[in-house]
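Q: Give me the 3D complex with alpha-D-galactopyranose.
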Amino acid sequence: MRRLRPILAAAATAALVATGLVAIETTAVTPALALENGLARTPPMGFNNWNTTHCRAEFNEGMIRSIADIFVSSGLKAAGYQYVNIDDCWARPTRNAQGNLVADPVRFPSGMKALGDYIHARGLKFGIYTSAGTKTCNTAGFPGALNNEQRDANLFASFGVDYLKYDNCNNQGVDARTRYTRMRDALAATGRPIVYSICEWGQNQPWTWAQPVGNLWRTTGDINDTWARMLSIFKANVTKAQYARPGAWNDADMLEVGNGGMTTTEYRSHFGLWAIMASPLLIGSDLRDVGPTDMNILLNRDIIAVNQDPLGKQATIVSNTGGRWILTKQMSDGTRAVALFNENSSAQTISTTASAIGLPGASSYGLFDLYSKARRTTTGAISASVPAHGIVMYRVTAGGTVPPGPRYEAENATISQGAVETQHAGYSGTGYVNTVNAVGPYVQWSVTAAAAGSVTLRFRHANGVAENRPLNVSINGGAPVSVNFPATGAWTTYATVTLTATLVAGTNTIRATATTAGGAPNLDYLEVATG
Ligand code: GLA
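A: Here is the predicted complex, encoded as structure tokens.
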């Protein structure tokens, strides 16, 4: 739910005018709640090995450790990817004498606890897999958790597991809702926060009952690395927007980007569609072998920002005429993300309007192309020639204001005298930064600009006390500018403060330093818009 706060906006505008800064936009978000485990407030982002390895021997400890390393070294972690998840075939085919699952000693000689420790040491989270049946799906017959729910949940918690994918094979005909609820309760009883992924393939319409049971639920059978299968899953998942909300997501299955079975154009469509459908973004390719073109798709922060928007809306269908699809996603800052998707095998012109995608009337609209990065204004027409099997995605702003640029989460920035927290819902990414209450703590972002010039900086914050919490903002160590961060009414009410700045080409540092005894407000992210 989005509320405008005109009084707050007016006060903040006055404060900014006083400091010589130029614009203010303030929004507040009160997220709807689902499964009350506080997790997956935005769609989970991470990795799962299944699409690239299935059960083959290359699925092993060395591979998973390498993936965790690459998350850090490639910028995937900084872009928001967090969960490193392992799929079927990690266990021995039989339980031990105590009845517990045991890691396959050939694939995972160091064991699961050590694997979780390795992943956690890199600031990432660890996910595991089993089935809500007597055995998992693989024909080797690995043990499932049906009738062993609490035993297995306790074991997973002892491994340090942060995410469970719970499959549907060999379920003995026991009612799905009963089976998945039992594991929900077993996970809760461990006391460890564990994202709960229901992998029931949409067989019992989980979107109609799973919001209070799991954080996400598969809507279809398995994806594979083909255009046809990707397209059919998109068509099944896109109709279920009304069921998605923070903490409860339609899962269109894991990504195939980087696995080689689709063209670059098709992978851009796949990634863009999954992002705008608020599906989890779980990379399913072996990152050791993924080239720069596919890596850049996965690292596209502007598309990730569409997926991770804290309002938690799944895109809805504006129209589909002859395979020319128009989807719109409501964003927490009042903008809309729009996808023009062409399922045809020839180029098509796809056209809509700002009004049709849900924006209010305005004399001008800002259009930001999330793949090409082009920016322009329009009086309302939104139209593009979209290649065969291709997608064009825009973020559209009413009023001709500069559309938001790449988002840099505060939790991934350099933090001095502060910590990443998650207790106040409504943040984007994996948390926000809470500094100590003093003069001097700061958050410093490293921002890349393609060219020198003026940009718009948009800081998202929450300030639950009555007093303002001004920050000194310094670009590349230059003279600080005092920027006011007004009270937002509650720590769960987020607002944005906007100012203009000049960047150099290449890497820039943007440091925001607390200047009063109250410290900084809680800082959620910085967006940097050019043009
Ligand atoms: C099912 C799931 C897949 C994968 C395999 C593993 O098919 O839907 O995502 O986990 O099992 O066996």
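A quick observation: Confidence is low (pLDDT under 50) at residues 1-33.
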